[in-house]
Fold this protein.
Amino acid sequence: MNHKAIIITGGAGFIGSHVVRLFVNKYPEYKIINVDKLTYAGNLANLKDIEQKPNYRFVKADICDFEAMLSLMQEEKVDGIIHLAAESHVDRSIKDPFTFARTNVMGTLSLLQAAKVYWESLPEKYEGKRFYHISTDEVYGALKMDGSLFTEETKYQPHSPYSAAKASSDHFVRAFHDTYGMPTIVTNCSNNYGPYQFPEKLIPLFINNIRHRKPLPVYGKGENVRDWLFVEDHARAIDIIFHKGKTAETYNIGGFNEWKNIDIVKLLISTVDRLLGRPEGADDDLITYVTDRAGHDLRYAIDSRKLQRELGWEPSLQFEEGIEKTVRWYLDNQEWMDNVTSGDYQRYYEDMYKGR
Ligand code: NAD
Ligand code: TYD
């Protein structure tokens, strides 16, 4: 496939910014169009290093706006869509499920319908097109502490409003393949970590709190297990799957890297303290056990052997190495963190485009 114009939605967010950077740098012959509404989670400072590249365009738009999506696809003659835009934080979904249904379900549907209307209007229709939907392992529900893994055949059993909305969007994507023949692909990835993650999520929140000696709110007993993948490994998987994945297939993405929350918290404390030259154990007392998250999924763990076997993808980093790199990045980029925690980043877009 020789794609010329690709929309990446949610490109100003955490994972999306890594995907945009990878595609803009690796494929100068493609036009990469980043469509992002710039919610609290969208930050154009994540893309400062590539925003002047000639094959990159940013469009501030809401994926729920069907007319805007359709006219952008027509204007840019879009032949590929990599869809990451979503509300992504479980705790927020517990407080405000409507926003999650709107963006994750209706937004995905609006994007699918726009692609359908546009691609079906072309003489070649769906030939050479691809709609790639990025999803999460959380749609599979929770595992027991019994060594079992989520495979591509595991039944959907979402528990949080976030995962319920993502599950619904996955179903719509498959329905567009089965009903209209749209060339779709879905991947379900485990928890990501790395640079540019919004500090509401465990790892960046705790790195920043340790640095400032603020309490670390560990939910419940800290015994929940997550399967962690370095974000650049996820972006590399997305590149491989976008180009070589089989239409209508699902691929699980994960690095066989399960960690109990409390063990990660201890690793973060010792890494931050070492890099800041603080004595060993200096910040252990920041750990604060708090009321558990409602409906807190016990364990996630991904079987990614299909992706490894069929498309040859492998994670590149060991977790300890990835955490070291990540902690260093947050410590070296305090300005990014301060802009995010103060809310200043939300003025970046207005300042950048002032007077144009
Ligand atoms: P994020 O919250 O950091 O970024 C989401 C981006 O989407 C933001 O830039 C935001 O402005 C944008 N957005 C939100 N609503 C929008 C709308 N209505 N229209 C246009 N743009 C909108 O999220 P993330 O952690 O980078 O996750 C990206 C995708 O990957 C999501 O679909 C998520 O479900 C999935 N995913 C995330 C993880 C993870 O660990 N973070 C793991 C597996 C899958
Ligand atoms: P999070 O980063 O929110 O990702 P997800 O809920 O999508 O897995 O949380 C990762 C784990 O860390 C999860 O088990 C909840 C837990 N957690 C805490 O214990 N304290 C916190 O402050 C946060 C944000 C998460």
Remarks:
- The pocket of nicotinamide-adenine-dinucleotide (ligand 1) is lined by residues 9-10, 12-16, 36-39, 41-42, 62-64, 84-88, 103, 107, 134, 136, 166, 189, 191-192, 198 (CB under 6 Å).
